[in-house]
Specification:
Blueprint lengths: L11 H5 L13 H5 L1 H4 L5 H4 L7 H5 L6 H12 L5 H13 L17 E3 L3 H5 L1 H13 L15 H4 L4 H16 L4 E3 L2 H10 L5 E2 H7 L12 E6 L2 H7 L2 H11 L4 E4 L14 H4 L1 H17 L4 E4 L2 H7 L6 E4 H6 L4
Parallel strand pairs: 1-2, 2-3, 4-5, 4-6, 6-7
Length: 331
C-alpha cells in the first residue's frame, strides 16, 4: 500500500506546520510534499527547503505517516541547493570539515564518555561548550574530546547532500566506535549519530538526568526561566527529554519555571532554514522570544546550540544554553 493511501486528509499536518503560515516561497506544506510524484512534479529544491524539519507534522499525524522522511527523499532527489547560505555551508565543510566558521573544539583528556562537540558550540558559543564540559564534570562523568572530529553530517544531509554526509561519517566513525559512550549537546548530532552511525549516543540532558544525584547546585539568585524544547530533542531524541529538562532546572535553587504558550514551537534554527532562508527563520525566532516575554521570563533556556544561536538573533531576551545555565549554578 502506498504511504499516502493511509492519509485521511485531516489537515493536522498543515495546521501544525510552522513555516507554511509564513507564506514565503512556494512551499506547499507537509502533505503535498509527500505527494510530489503525483501532484507536484515541478517542485524545486528551494521550495522543499522551506521546511524546518521540526517533525511536528509527524507527531500530529493520526495515521503515523513519516512526512519528514518523505521530505528528505524529495530533497535528496532535488539536490543540490543553490541558496547562497547553503553554498557557503558546503564551502566550509569542504574547507575544514565544519558547518560554521570559527575555532574547533580543543582535544581534552578524560576517563568517561566521549563528548561530541559538534560545530556550533566550539565556534560560536564557546561559553556553552565550556559549560557543557563543566556540568558533565560536576556530574562526575569526566568526558574526553578526541582530536580529529568533524561535523556529524546532519546539516548537509538536511539539505539533501547525502554523499557529503557519508564522507563526514566515515571520517568520524573510527574515533566514535572506540568510545564506550558518546554524549553530545546538539540534538541534531545525537539524531545523526544514532540513526546513521548506529551509535547509541545520549544528549547531555539524558546523561545529566541519569547522573543528577551527583550534581551539587550552589545557592542562586531568584530568576524566572522559560524553557524552549528544541524540535530535534523533544520530537527527535524523545519526548522524555522535556520532563528531564524541567527536572534538572527545578533542582537548581532560585529557579522558577514559567510556562510559555507553546514551548515546543520551532525557533527556525533547524533543517537548513536558518542558512537558506534567514528571513523566514527570523520570523519563527521572533515568535518564540515573544512567547517567552509574554510568560514573564527573564531567561529563555534551550538545550540546543542551534536554537540558542537562532534565538539570540532577536533582541530583548536573554537566551542561554541549558548546560551553560546549569554550570553557572554549580559549586
Amino acid at each position: 500500500m502506498r504511504i499516502m493511501d493511509r492519509c485521511i486528509k485531516c489537515g493536522l499536518c498543515v495546521r501544525s506546520c510552522p513555516t507554511i503560515s509564513l507564506r514565503q516561497g512556494n512551499f506547499p506544506g507537509p502533505r503535498e510534499v509527500a505527494m510530489v510524484p503525483l501532484r507536484h512534479p515541478g517542485l524545486e529544491v528551494e521550495d522543499l527547503l522551506l521546511c524546518s524539519m521540526c517533525y511536528r507534522c509527524r507527531s500530529v499525524c493520526p495515521s503515523g505517516i513519516d512526512l519528514p522522511e518523505a521530505m528528505m527523499r524529495m530533497r535528496i532527489e532535488a539536490a543540490p541547493s543553490t541558496r547562497d547560505g547553503h553554498q557557503r555551508l558546503l564551502g566550509r565543510i569542504a574547507a575544514h570539515g565544519r558547518s560554521v566558521d570559527g575555532p574547533s573544539a580543543r582535544p581534552r583528556r578524560g576517563s568517561g564518555p566521549l563528548f561530541f562537540p559538534g560545530c556550533v558550540s566550539p565556534a560560536r558559543l564557546q561559553d556553552g561548550h565550556a559549560g557543557a564540559l563543566a556540568v558533565l564534570d560536576a556530574a562526575g562523568l569526566d568526558p574526553y574530546v578526541p582530536d580529529g572530529l568533524v561535523c556529524c553530517g546532519a546539516p548537509v544531509r538536511k539539505i539533501g547532500e547525502i554523499e557529503r554526509a557519508e564522507g563526514l561519517r566515515l571520517r568520524n566513525l573510527e574515533l566514535l566506535e572506540a568510545a564506550d559512550m558518546v554524549v553530545a549537546s546538539c540534538p541534531g548530532c545525537v539524531g545523526e549519530l544514532n540513526e546513521h552511525y548506529g551509535i547509541g549516543a545520549l544528549h547531555t540532558v539524558e546523561a545529566l538526568y541519569e547522573a543528577r544525584h551527583r550534581l551539587k547546585p550552589a545557592t542562586g539568585t531568584k530568576v524566572k526561566v522559560a524553557v524552549h524544547h528544541p524540535c530535534h530533542l523533544s520530537r527527535g531524541v524523545g519526548a522524555h527529554t522535556r520532563e528531564q529538562t524541567a527536572q534538572l532546572l527545578m533542582s537548581l535553587p532560585g529557579v522558577h519555571l514559567v510556562e510559555m504558550d507553546d514551548p515546543s514551537a520551532c525557533c527556525g534554527g533547524g533543517g537548513g532554514l536558518m542558512a537558506g532562508y534567514p528571513n523566514a527563520s527570523m520570523e519563527l525566532a521572533k515568535g518564540k522570544t515573544n512567547d517567552a516575554k509574554r510568560s514573564g521570563a527573564e531567561v529563555l533556556v534551550a538545550a540546543c546550540p542551534f536554537c540558542v544561536l537562532s534565538l539570540r538573533r532577536v533582541p530583548g531576551m536573554t537566551v542561554v544554553g541549558l548546560e551553560e545555565f546549569m554550570s553557572s549554578r554549580m559549586r
